[in-house]
Amino acid sequence: MTHTTAESDALYEVTIVKYGTRQGxxxxxxxxxxxxxxxxxxxxxxxxxxxxxxxxxxxVVDTGFSRAGGDNRKRTFLIQPAEAFAHLGIxxxxxxxxxxxxxxxxxxxxxxxxDSSTVTIAASEYAFWTSPLAxxxxxxxxxxxxxxxxxxxVHDGGRLRTFEGEIQIAPGITMREVGGHTPGQSxxxxxxxxxxxxxxxxxxxxxxxxxxxxxxxxxxxxxxMYRGFDLITExxxxxxxxxxxxxxxxxxxxRFTPVADGPLAGLAATIGGTTATTPTHSTxxxxx
Length: 288
Fold this sequence. Notes:
Layout: H1 5-9, E1 13-25, H2 26-29, E2 42-53, E3 58-61, H3 67-72, E4 76-77, H4 81-87, E5 98-99, H5 105-108, E6 119-122, H6 123-129, H7 137-140, H8 145-156, E7 160-163, E8 166-170, E9 173-177, E10 186-192, E11 195-201, H9 207-212, H10 222-238, E12 243-246, E13 257-258, E14 268-271
Parallel strand pairs: 3-5, 5-6, 6-7, 11-12
Antiparallel strand pairs: 1-2, 1-4, 1-14, 2-3, 8-9, 9-10, 10-11, 13-14
């Protein structure tokens, strides 16, 4: 298919980078696992960051866990997120816009790496993690205080943009609030030459969550999590979404085009790679 210049400007390549991993068990990963009559087997959990780019712009989706956040939870680094971004030609000096799907430690751990970037997050997510409820044990175990301070610093520095419901980030890129896992958990919809991609982040950690209707163990709003499953199922069934990318499924990279060469070989995959992905100018931009 041949795309016009205007259409191509709204088509992107999505790069999925696996930067960390751990091994757990189904009983600790799924909510009330015993209800499903399934054996309690080991289940790996991988950790990802995502990059969305074309010839016009580069956008970072989440920034992974920090050294402190990973070490505090005995997570295994496969590559430092900052190093992975550098291998993709993304530097703090370029100030790429950063989309934060939610404020857990493994999604904002290196936010201060992009110390000049505009950061977009759901208003309800920011409000919750800067409220007194954030210190309650059932929530606080998933965050690092220093990283929440870094998020506050983005706000205080005038670089934080919040939204309610849905926001168009750029032509072909939409961020949608779904809640569930956290109060303002969001997903990112991206148009590519291979169809629309839904970066689910932790709206679904694993494919089987929404396919088999099995909620994740840590949830702020269970009805909202179920509604998120329904939304994703409907978008796929209608053909509006061609590819779902979950937040932690070890099978993710196997489903897309692997990066076969270079320092990210075996750690990354792409979707929509026929789209030009070398920006013709600095990636720094102001998104209205």
